[in-house]
């Protein structure tokens, strides 16, 4: 991140961190209780203001950015709005069946509503104004997955105490394949980005990953160990060449797409002794610093008094012992093992979080299959996301700062607003565009990154 300048927008109200860029990157939708606000991404001017029947609990864009749905789960209602025709709107009422989730199909003209107790999925067509039903959807962590080209949907089902997968063709919703899976209690499914292989994984009590082809053939099965808590997270590489499995034993296993066997185990050790691994530790500083000393100059037009940073990164000489917590293994979902996995868009880096070292982000060089960088924060990491275009990682820890890592540097920047703005979640602009959405409990703002070459 060459001599960058970070500008911040003004702050806007927000409810429940319900804020999303449109897929085409032109609009920003945010919810304030029962109101839906659509802004122009470049000017942040309000383009449309819609009023819903109740407090909004979920918001979702259609893939073509022409429609947006707002789900009110308590009322069992979904309202759909059109950006091109502001007077057009649609209301879907699931009635006594209730509603627990709602999403778009890839064509942006069908809505899939899952009813309470996962009794069925209701498939509503906006164009044909018709409705159809899919029975037996399984209540699990990730039970529905679309291929990235939008042609197929896989759905996890539970019938007669057994797990099944149904694969549908999305253009006419005909059933392509239906097969039983060799799982005790299926927990999640995910397509490879190329849409050729479906990964299916079992409950954390049974270490098992199954890989199926589009026509339902079992390509391979993998289990790392038995009689202990197993799989916690799964992620495909953007190239579909690797499937990474994060486990409760604090390791990431990387399977290759040829043999579906592990080619590397990434160990998250509490002590970093390899001199090739860079460890950046966030350190708190009590005194204020002059704006001229900051890694980033303050935003233009912002009073410098708002921009006093009280933390920075220091490069720590090894060996380094990282802070760990002792998880309570008697409780459900213990803070143990690999809870987060994410690949950079160029397949070069993998970011991970080991939950019993909650303040650390691990960045692995996948070309060299080794640990490249560890960032140790002062507070537990809430989330991290890669820029969709370049290898640049944004991190938040629930304080008033945003953290950025790139292969050339890492920085900590205070969000320069009056009052408190604790960053609870963040999202990159879908086209990269050097802008980052930051969300606190009740507010949002946009952070703009520019290099000095842009001036």
Automatic annotation (TrEMBL):
What SMART domains does this protein map onto? WD40
Q: Which GO terms describe its cellular component?
A: microtubule organizing center; MWP complex
Q: Give the protein name, as stated in the record.
A: WD repeat containing, antisense to TP73
Entries under InterPro entries matching the protein: Centrosome-WD_assoc, Quino_amine_DH_bsu, WD40/YVTN_repeat-like_dom_sf, WD40_rpt
Q: Give the matching Gene3D superfamilies.
A: YVTN repeat-like/Quinoprotein amine dehydrogenase
Q: Which residues form a coiled coil?
A: none
Q: Which domain of life is it from?
A: Eukaryota
This chain's source organism reads Eleutherodactylus coqui (Puerto Rican coqui)
């Amino acid at each position: 991140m060459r001599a960058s300048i970070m500008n911040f927008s003004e702050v806007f109200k927000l409810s429940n961190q319900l804020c999303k860029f449109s897929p085409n990157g032109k609009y920003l939708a945010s919810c304030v209780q029962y109101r839906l606000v659509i802004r122009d991404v470049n000017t942040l001017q309000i383009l449309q203001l819609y009023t819903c029947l109740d407090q909004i609990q979920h918001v979702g864009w259609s893939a073509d950015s022409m429609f947006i749905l707002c789900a009110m789960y308590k009322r069992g209602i979904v309202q759909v709005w059109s950006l091109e025709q502001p007077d057009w709107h649609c209301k879907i009422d699931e009635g006594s069946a209730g509603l627990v989730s709602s999403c778009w199909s890839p064509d942006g003209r069908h809505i899939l509503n899952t009813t309470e107790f996962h009794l069925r999925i209701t498939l509503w067509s906006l164009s044909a104004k018709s409705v159809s039903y899919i029975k037996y959807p399984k209540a699990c962590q990730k039970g529905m997955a679309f291929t990235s080209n939008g042609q197929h949907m896989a759905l996890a089902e539970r019938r007669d105490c057994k797990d099944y997968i149904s694969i549908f063709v999305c253009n006419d919703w005909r059933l392509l394949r239906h097969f039983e899976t060799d799982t005790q209690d299926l927990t999640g499914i995910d397509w490879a980005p190329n849409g050729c292989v479906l990964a299916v994984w079992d409950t954390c009590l049974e270490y098992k990953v199954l890989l199926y082809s589009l026509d339902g053939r079992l390509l391979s099965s993998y289990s790392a160990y038995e009689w202990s808590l197993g799989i916690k997270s799964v992620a495909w590489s953007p190239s579909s060449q690797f499937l990474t499995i994060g486990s409760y034993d604090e390791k990431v296993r990387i399977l290759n797409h040829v043999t579906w066997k592990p080619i590397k185990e990434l160990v998250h050790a509490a002590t970093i002794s390899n001199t090739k691994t860079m460890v950046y530790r966030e350190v708190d500083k009590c005194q204020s610093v002059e704006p001229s000393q900051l890694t980033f100059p303050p935003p233009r037009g912002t009073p410098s008094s708002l921009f006093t940073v009280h933390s920075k990164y220091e490069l720590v000489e090894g060996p380094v012992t990282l802070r760990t917590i002792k998880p309570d293994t008697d409780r459900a979902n213990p803070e143990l093992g690999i809870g987060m996995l994410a690949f950079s868009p160029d397949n070069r880096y993998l970011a991970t979080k080991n939950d019993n070292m909650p303040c650390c982000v691990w960045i692995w060089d996948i070309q060299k299959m080794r640990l490249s960088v560890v960032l140790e924060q002062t507070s537990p990491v809430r989330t991290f996301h890669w820029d969709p275009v370049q290898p640049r990682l944004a991190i938040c820890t629930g304080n008033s700062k945003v953290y950025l890592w790139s292969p050339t540097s890492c920085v900590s920047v205070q969000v320069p607003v009056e009052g408190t703005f604790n960053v609870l979640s963040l999202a990159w602009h879908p086209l990269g565009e050097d802008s980052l959405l930051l969300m606190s409990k009740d507010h949002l703002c946009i952070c703009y990154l520019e290099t000095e070459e842009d001036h």
